[in-house]
Amino acid sequence: MSQAVNEAKSLFTSIRITLAVSGVIALIAGIVLLVWPIKSAVIVTAIFASYLVVAGVVYIGLGIFSKAKGGWARVGHIVLGLLYIVAGVIAFANLGAAAATLALVVVIFIGISWIVDGVVALTLLGQDGSRVWTLLYAILSIIAGIIVLFSPLIAGLAFWLFLGISLIALGIVQIVRAITIGKEAKGFVASVQDGVTS
């Protein structure tokens, strides 16, 4: 068998494995989000808190060991690193409250960004070719943002459910793609073999 055929088989095998593994991870993550929403929120918060601590240590290291930066930049890096570490430690101290706070902040940020997006769309109304669709988008975006701001708990729950359902659907699609790509791989490898032998 030629090297081209082996490379084609190896490529499709690695693609299938990547698709299958990512699909299984997404599927499991989606199921966990739906079955244990509070525990999974706490786990996500713990991961985020770990990131804060690690980032804090990195910033402190940059501030201490970086000779190229000026004095104020080094002090700024150290202060930022300390703030990250303090935030991570506070989050670890009460992961449940930190998870609720993080979810609330994310939902409020989404609500505000939708309102701003709607206002920006309204300012572009005169320049856009499709005024009706732009106006409709702006109104819906502003209304959705206001609804999210006035009911952040419901919006957070809906977002969490949507995320879980989306991960399950994406996981299933990835697994199916991994299975079906095997059929495509056989046809491709056969065409490569035919091209090599002729």
Strand and helix layout:
Elements: H1 3-35, H2 37-65, H3 71-93, H4 95-123, H5 131-150, H6 152-197
Helix pairs in contact: 1-2, 1-6, 2-3, 2-4, 3-4, 4-5, 4-6, 5-6
Features:
198 residues; 6 helices; 0% strand; extended
Poorly predicted regions are none
Q: Name the average pLDDT.
A: 84
Q: How big a fraction of the residues is strand?
A: under 5%
**Helical content band:** over 70%
Rg computed from alpha carbons, rounded to a whole number of angstroms: 25 Å
Assembly state: single chain
Quote the distance from N terminus to C terminus. 13 Å
So what's the overall shape?
extended
Structural class: mainly alpha
Number of helical elements: 6
Based on DSSP secondary structure assignment, what is the total number of beta strands? 0
Tell me about the largest β-sheet.
none
Taken in chain order, the helices and strands follow as HHHHHH
